[in-house]
Amino acid sequence: MSEIPFDIIARVPKLIIKLSFSLLKLKRRVRVCARKLKKSMVKGGMDKKQAKALAYRYEESLSIRKFLKNNILKDKGIPFL
After folding, report:
1. What is the pTM of this model?
2. DSSP helix/strand/coil, 23
């Protein structure tokens, strides 16, 4: 039989659900902050196109999928990431 206790296996789905909701809240907050960043850059005199590009890069730098791919799941061989 497996060396992993059944209690840990039973808690994994609950943990994944909790983490998913936390990460979705983080992503929503990042989107809101990127919009505020763009507005304040335009208000400060920056070109709209450049401000949009910088805000997009900010939003993408905090991508959950990229974070997992580059930091946590590196060299694990998971094909969907």
Report:
1. 0.62
2. helix
